Structures are given as C-alpha cells and as structure tokens.
C-alpha cells in the first residue's frame, strides 16, 4: 500500500516546499509515499483558463496511476473532519488500494480528469491557493496516521 | 481601521513563520495590521490541558484589545467561503471596528476567552495545528482584500 500525491506544477513558494517536505518525511515513517509533479506548462499567457485546464488535464492523465483509488482535492468535494478523514484513508488502505491524491493547477481540473476520479474531497469551504493545499493535505495525511496509530501529534 | 492577529505562543516552525511574514507584508498594502504574540508558558509539563488553557487564557486577556471586534478561530465556529469571509470583514470594517483574530494554543481557548468573543470562525471541518492556522488565516485575509478590491490573487 502506498500514497501518491500528484501536484500540478512545481511548488514555487519556498516555505510551502519546506512544509511539504517536513510532513513528507514524517509520513514516510507510516507508509510509502511519493510526490509526482506535473511539469509546468510553457507559454500560458496566450491560453484561456479553459485551455490551461485542458492541457494540464492531458498531462495529469499521462502520469495518473489509474490502478490507484483517485481522490481529487476539489472545492466541490466532500468535507471531512480529521477523524473521519483518517477513517476514510484506513478503509481504502484496508481494501488493498493505493491512494492517489491529485491537486490541480490554479484553475482546477478539466472534465477528463473529473471522469477519472473515484472521490472528491474538499479541505474547507474556504478557497486555498493550490500551493497552500499541498501543505495542508500533507499535514492532514500526517495527522490521519497519528490518529490511526493513536500517537501524539508532533507540532514541530 | 486595523486588523490585529493575536497568536498564543511563538511561531516555532520556520516555514510557517516565513509564510505568515509573506502574507503579512502583502496585507500591509491594504490595511494596518499587527501581530501580537502571547509569550509561551514555562514549565508546562506538570500542567494539565485545562490548566494550560486557563493560564494561556489569562495571558490572552491581559493583552486582548477589548475595544476590537474579537474573532476566535475555533473549530466550533461558523464556516465561511472566501467570498463570504471577505464580505464579513468588509461589513465589520465599515462599521468602524478594528478586528482582532485570536488563535489559541494547542488545546484551544479557556471559558474566560470564549466569554470575550464577538464571533467564532472555523477555517475547516478539519483540525489544523495552531501553527498552520496562523498561515491559513494570513492567506485568507490577503485573499479577502484581493476579493474586496477586485484584484488578482498573486500566488507567489
């Protein structure tokens, strides 16, 4: 069993990158985990939002581990509390599934990506930047495993 | 009009500190803003959670700007979307109020602090660490002002 995190575009903000790396290191104690980065599109200035989503979607589909249980982080998704979220992860892992959490680009997902999703999860009613979402999901995954193992949450 | 952010304890995680500083700098273009840090308690190992909350609460009350509209970030609070959150801030500022957002320590707020609150806001159904919440509220305040000014959101 394994968790894949698929990020659309490089993490450009240094403190987000550090935060993701920190939680990534902690998570590796619990489960194999891999971050897959979709390369940034080039020459996006002439593209509409829809065209950007479409091209990003094509690039996501090229590398999406389709045998995984695919979870999009999406504002239209289901909202969980942290305990329920840990239960959700536990259930899926117990079913023998690898999980792939997908974070889209600044404008969200194309329809083709939505069609590949097994679940959609929303982290909040608030809109977070797609960079912040990386750190938040990493923290929530770490928190989920501390809950499942009944271990104290280490804040730093 | 001004926004105060009251944090319980120093920000101990360097990347969180950098994130807060980043959004703080951006926010200053829109509104005067100040971060007030409640000093960390000493010798907490012998204290129960309740005692820690009580002592932290006493320290919060010493510096709480009581003339402000006091908003606790609390899991029992109201959840907003980002647009509604910007509307909430706008309404309060238009009423001529300074706003003080208060983030508690690891165990939350004491009853005495709850009694001083004018509003409670929850950032998510998920539980975030009180360190992460600092960065998330800073980002949401920045986002709120970009929404109110109808300006593009700058991701980095």
Please tell me about this protein's structure.
- Two copies of one chain form a homodimer.
- Chain A has 156 residues and is α/β, with parallel strands linked by helices.
- The first copy, chain A, has one domain: Alpha/beta knot.
- In chain A, 43% of the residues lie in helices and 21% in strands.
- Chain A has five helices and five strands.
- The first copy, chain A, has a five-stranded parallel β-sheet.
- In chain A, strand 1, helix 1 and strand 2 form a beta-alpha-beta unit.
- In chain A, helix 1 packs parallel to helix 5 and helix 3 crosses helix 5.
- The longest helix of chain A has 19 residues.
- The first copy, chain A, is globular, with a radius of gyration of 15 Å.
- In chain A, 38% of the residues are buried.
- The mean pLDDT of chain A is 95.
Write the layout of secondary structure elements.
Two copies of one chain form a homodimer.
Chain A: E1 3-8, H1 14-27, E2 33-38, H2 49-63, E3 69-79, H3 82-94, E4 99-103, H4 111-116, E5 119-122, H5 130-148
Parallel strand pairs in A: 1-2, 1-4, 3-4, 3-5
List keywords for this structure.
5-stranded parallel β-sheet; homodimer; Alpha/beta knot; 156 residues; globular; alpha/beta
What is the number of beta strands of chain A?
Answer: 5
Order of neighbouring strands in the sheet with most strands of chain A: 2-1-4-3-5
CATH class categorisation of chain A: Alpha Beta
- Terminal-residue CA separation of chain A: 27 Å
Biggest interface found = A-B, 32 and 32 residues
CATH superfamily of chain A: SPOUT methyltransferase, trefoil knot domain
Low-confidence stretches of chain A: none
Number of helix segments of chain A? 5
**Content of β-strand of chain A:** 15-25%
Known CATH architecture of chain A: 3-Layer(aba) Sandwich
| Helical amount of chain A | 40-55%
Please, what is the oligomeric state? Answer: homodimer
Compute the average pLDDT of chain A: 95
CATH topology title of chain A: Alpha/beta knot
User: H/E order of the elements of chain A?
Assistant: EHEHEHEHEH
Structural class of chain A: alpha/beta
């Amino acid at each position: 069993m394994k968790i894949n995190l698929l990020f659309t575009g490089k993490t450009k903000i240094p403190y987000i990158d550090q935060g993701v790396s920190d939680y990534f290191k902690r998570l590796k104690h619990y489960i194999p985990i891999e971050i897959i980065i979709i390369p940034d599109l080039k020459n996006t200035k002439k593209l509409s939002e829809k065209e950007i989503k479409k091209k990003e979607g094509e690039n996501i589909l090229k590398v999406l581990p389709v045998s995984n249980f695919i979870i999009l982080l999406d504002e239209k998704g289901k909202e969980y509390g942290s305990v329920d979220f840990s239960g959700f992860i536990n259930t899926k892992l117990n079913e023998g599934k690898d999980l792939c959490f997908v974070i889209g680009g600044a404008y969200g997902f194309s329809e083709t990506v939505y069609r590949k999703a097994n679940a959609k999860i929303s982290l909040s009613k608030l809109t977070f930047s797609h960079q912040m979402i990386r750190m938040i999901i990493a923290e929530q995954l770490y928190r989920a495993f501390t809950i499942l193992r009944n271990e104290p949450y280490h804040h730093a």
